[in-house]
Input
Amino acid sequence: MDNSDSELELYTIPSTSRWFVWDEIHETERIAFKEFFDGNSISRTPKIYKEYRDFIINKYREEPSRRLTFTEVRKSLVGDVTFLHKAFLFLEKWGLINYGTPSSLDAEKEEEEEEQCKVRLEEGAPNGIRVAATPNSLKPMSVPHNTKSGGNVGGASLKLPPLASYSDVYGDLIRQKELNCGLCGDKCGSEHYQTQDNFIICTNCFKSGNYGEKWTAEDFVLSESSENSVKHDAVWTEGETLLLLESVLKHGDDWELVAQSVQTKNKLDCISKLIELPFGELMLGPAHRIISSNSANGIPNTNKQVQSSSSDNQETSKTKDQASELTNESQQNGDAMNETPSKRQCVATLSDSSSSLMNQVGLISTVVDPHITAAAADAAVSALCDENLCPREIFDVEDDYASHMNSLNSCYSARALEGEGLEVERSSVSDIDDRCPKVGIPLTLRVRAATATALGAAAARAKLLADQEDREIEHLVATIIEAQIEKLQHKVKHFDDLELLMEKEHDEIENLKDSILTERLDVLRRTFRSGITRWKDYSYVKS
Amino acid sequence: MKTPISGLYKNPVKFRMPTAENLVPIRLDIEIEGQRYKDAFTWNPSDPDSEVVVFAKRTVKDLKLPPAFVTQIAQSIQSQLVEFRSYEGQDMYAGEKIVPIKLDLRVNHTLVKDQFLWDLNNFESDPEEFAKIFCKDMDIEDPEVGPAIAFAIREQLYEIAIQSVVSARESRMSKKGRRGAEYTPISKGGAVAVDLVKLFGPKSSVVRKRKEWDVYEPIVDLLSNEEVDALEAKEERNFR
Output
């Protein structure tokens, strides 16, 4: 068989058959054809297997695009047809022959496999299909429905998570759209007439005087259809928006409660409004609620505002009186900015974020010593002063701010030390809020200063923790070294003991030697005395 | 069913069909009052014998044969089963044994000629599966051809198995008579078995020479109606 030229050609075999080598028989083959490798048979030897294999593969590769059949192969090979078929199937299974040559057999196999796959898929739990109302789902289930159905089932102790059906999710939408005339059955247009018992007729029927049997024209009230009413409701007043935001903060994504507190709007409106709001996504993510709203909305805005105010203030002189004017001006600037709608929302979040930021600062500050907080605050203020001129004036003018911060920090950290906990801190933070406006420093600056203070405090805390960790490590290393030394000492002591034992043994052996020597001398002496001849004596000694 | 392979070549095998499934080929050829019924099928000898009569009745009913056939069919099957069972429990052969199987049969319009080797120790062998692949590879559409081929293989294997039992008995007898005086080669167990050493020995290749390929190539012919009629007439004459 000539394999040399086939090596030069390129054949595609599946990657799973990489084991195949012309010159060797792989373990896979050995396992598949055990009877060829136990050496018990004349007609089944590794050599014969290899000849079968090589012939079949070569035969296929003479014309790789054509499908090789078993019947074609067996006429050229001597051997048990059952086994030949087994080998043929093996090679086909591994793609060494008939790889990529589709045939009716292959198609059938594929179909079978596909069917098996389908079955397998069905066996697996189709998790994607299950729609359960999880706490985070946008549309929570209406709770009364569940409790009712649960009660009807009758004391089933196992409470399954409610399944959201189509009508649960889209029920509101469907109801609003399907308003048909109670008389003619047509769909009501943009308007319809409604009685107090919710009987609805379309405008056509109303105009033509067709009121039905029970009602008169006075019973009907003109009401706009759902589409219009939705549009109408979608106009949000500022008060409503504020109410929505507050209730979202309070109730999270429990839209039933949110809608209840907004009152004038329904659930859907609340959700869509909140999504429309630029920061709505941030509010929804509960984990990010505080931090990201601070970092994403609070800080950049403070920068903008500070810069704008400072640029405004560059021209003005630096006297005390004018500084107070400056604050007024900046407040006016703030008012002016409030008039543009997008900024207004940002300011709303800013005040919100600043208060929560104060909470954070208060929390962080309490974890370190008061004087560290004070130093951090000082550093923060001075850094802010370096950044631009305006704050310096403000801080210079109201230079008791830093000390005020310090005193505050120290006071509430002291309280925290007394163990009164979070509520006290909050009250002290609200103290800050209350007092700071009196001081008259712009909110933005306060926020920045507080942020810097918090960062400083956190850094200090980290330093402290690192130091503590260092000490801990040192201590542990010292312990380890001590233990090692103790171990060594024990070993030395043990060796000493061993040496002592050895010495004793040595002494004993020496003694034994001596006694044996004397004994021998004694024996010799006695033999001499008894007068044994010399040659006998010699042989005795020798032996 | 499956014996460990390593032990196969040493120990004699008890009589059975040398295939995966122990199915006995049964051939029926019964003529009553000018009506002739010919059939061939396999029977599982471990089925209860009461099934035979049930089968016979059913066949007669399905083929609308005269009721006289029932007993004839049942008797024929029964006697063939008895013959098969008479060999059971006896030693068949020891050692390797590969036999040539020759096919030469006509099913309706299809003529099949083929020959190949069959290992009697390979109890994974499956004539029905072999026939199925044969028909698929040779594009034989007639659904009756496959079973006919399988049956032909089984019939030959059955024949060889019976021969083996007989010769194994004889060799045992001769060994008893002249203790160890004469060495009887294993391959002599059946007259038809191929010479393993010659075919599979270290000097020979299991790949046939190209000129031999035609000899072992299966031949499938589709006959015309006239040819079939002529052949059937000839067979009829031979039967008489």
